[in-house]
Each structure stands twice: as C-alpha cells, then as structure tokens.
C-alpha cells in the first residue's frame, strides 16, 4: 500500500537520477475516504516539457504526487480525486502537477496532470 517508501523512492529518483534541486517532501493531506497523500515540491534542472514557458507554475516549482501502480489499477484515480489534489494539496494558481506512478519493481513513470482542459502539444 501507499507509504513513505513510495514517497522516498520518487524523491530519490528526482534528486539522483534527474538532478532536480530544492526537493522537499510536503505534509500529508488526508482525503474524505481516509487516503493520505504527500506532495513533493522541486525545481527541475532543465525544461521538463516543450510547452514549459506557457505551462510553468507561477512559483517556478513542479509539484509531484507519488502513487503506487496498485492504486492506479484499482481505479482509485478519478476526475474528482484529481480535482481534490488541485484544491486541497497544491498552491492556488497551480496549472499542472506531475503524477509519479511507482510500479512493483520500483520503476517510476511521470505523467502531467493539468487543471481543466489543456490543448495538446504539437510534436
């Protein structure tokens, strides 16, 4: 189940593999269903997407929400849960966060989650 090990695995991946700076694990937030999540705040070492200039959060930080693959497969991630993350866990005005999905073998996959409808980027 989701725990401190998952958060630390994602934190270590950001620091040691991606060379992000100012990496800080923020306080846990508990939702109505009893689930507690944590956010990691960090500054990327370089641009993280092609649309970075227009999509960057106003404070320059990226916000990362670690979850385990079992939570994803159990259909825990709903539109309501994504909305709750924006409202309850992130600073006002945050445009996007990064969902870090940790698989059973320790692989970390990163996905952008935008608030509202977002125009697809061009390749």
UniProtKB/TrEMBL annotation:
The keyword Acetylation does not apply. InterPro entries: Sen15_fungi, tRNA-endonuc_su_Sen15, tRNA_endonuc-like_dom_sf, tRNA_intron_Endo_cat-like_sf. It holds the Pfam family Sen15. Keywords: tRNA processing. It comes from the Eukaryota. GO terms for cellular component: tRNA-intron endonuclease complex. The keyword tRNA processing applies. Gene3D superfamilies: 3.40.1350.10. GO terms for biological process: tRNA-type intron splice site recognition and cleavage. Residues 9-123 form the tRNA-splicing endonuclease subunit Sen15 domain. One of its GO terms (molecular function) is tRNA-intron lyase activity. PANTHER family: TRNA-SPLICING ENDONUCLEASE SUBUNIT SEN15 (PTHR28518). Belongs to the SEN15 family. This is tRNA-splicing endonuclease subunit Sen15 domain-containing protein. The gene is TPHA0N01610.
């Amino acid at each position: 189940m989701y725990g401190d090990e998952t958060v630390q695995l994602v934190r270590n991946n950001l620091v040691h593999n991606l060379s992000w700076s100012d990496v800080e694990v923020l306080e846990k937030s508990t939702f109505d269903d009893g689930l507690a999540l944590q956010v990691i705040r960090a500054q990327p070492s370089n641009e993280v997407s092609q649309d970075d200039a227009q999509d960057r959060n106003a404070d320059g930080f990226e916000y990362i929400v670690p979850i385990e693959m079992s939570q994803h497969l159990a259909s825990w991630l709903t539109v309501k849960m994504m909305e709750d993350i924006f409202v309850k866990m992130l600073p006002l005005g945050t445009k996007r966060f990064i969902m870090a999905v940790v698989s059973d073998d320790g692989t970390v996959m990163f996905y952008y989650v935008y608030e509202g409808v977002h125009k697809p980027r061009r390749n």
